[in-house]
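@channel sequence for tomorrow's demo:
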Amino acid sequence: MLKLDCPYCGSRDEVEFHYGGQAHLSRPEDPDALSDARWAEYLFMRDNPKGPFAERWVHWAGCRRWFNVLRDTRDHRVIAVYEMGAAHPPMVEGETP
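structure tokens (generated this afternoon):
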């Protein structure tokens, strides 16, 4: 079982959280100007790396607040947990996102 450190409540079991998808995605400035193909790309196409990946999680059984997790998809190791709106931590030491 995964342990996540909620930035607001502290360490809790994974069952208290819900996964919210890829983090750091920006909504298109003018969605009405997008073609159907571009809108579908925004809605459905996500990165699927083998390695560090920034994700959104919500602590639904606790404070009900959203936060970001940098997790390695190869071994589910949590590299960093940080509040929404905070700067993205380095993916790997010395590397920037």
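heads up for whoever presents: The chain is about 10% helix and 35% strand.
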